[in-house]
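Subject: for your reference before the review

Hello V.,

The reviewers asked for a structural picture of the protein, and I figured it would be easier to keep everything in one thread rather than splitting it across files. Below is the amino acid sequence we used in the manuscript, unchanged from the supplementary table.
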Amino acid sequence: MLAMTVLMLAYMDNVWLIHQKTEVSQIARQYILKMETVGYLEEADRIRLGRELEVAGVTELELGGTTMSPVTYGDIITLEIRGKLGGEHGFEEKRVSTAKH
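And here is what came back from the structure prediction:
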């Protein structure tokens, strides 16, 4: 009975991490679409992105490699999100597209 309880708790922890990572992926998708129309990640969007990721459970957020200054039509834009979920599980989410503004 104790072993089943431990297995169930481990399973629930893994399901929660998968849920958080899926949420992070959806947030990244929303912001890369915004970046396509503007050509980069604007400061106001960067702040909103940070808040949304914090609510999703991301800690130690890094946006290194993200396109932070304007690019011309057709140039590559990148959104790279690194951090930790659950305080200990590192992850990286990378989205690449082209500017369509």
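For the response letter, the relevant points are probably these. Residues 30 and 49 are 10 Å apart (CA to CA). The chain has a mean pLDDT of 94.

Happy to draft the paragraph if you're swamped.

O.
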